Amino acid sequence: MSTFEHPSDAASDESAPRYVRVNIELIAEITDEQALKAAALTQVKDDTYMDDEERAEALEAIDIDPSGSLAHFVDPVALLGNVPGVELASATWESAQTEYDPDDETWEEHELG
Fold it and tell me: Which pTM was predicted?
C-alpha cells in the first residue's frame, strides 16, 4: 500500500525543499556597442570557469552578435547571494535584441529614472 502526499502537505513540511521560480524581464539600452563588446570579450577571456571550447564559442558569438555580450555580465549568484535562507538551485538566462517602444504605456510603471 502506498501513501500519497498532497503537495500542500509537502509545502507545510519545513524539511522539504521549496523552490520558487523568479522571472525577471529587463530592457537595456546599449549606448556604446563597441565598449560593451570589448568588455564582454575581456570578461570571457578572463573567465576561469570556462573550458577552451566554451570560451571559443562565446568569443565567436560576441563577434557575430554583440547584443549577446550583455549576457556575460548577468550574475544570478550575485542577485541572490546575500538573501538569507536562499540558495540558488539553477539559473538560465540569455540576451537578445528586442522591439521596445519607450512610449508604450505598458512599460511606464517599470521604467527606471
Answer: 0.65
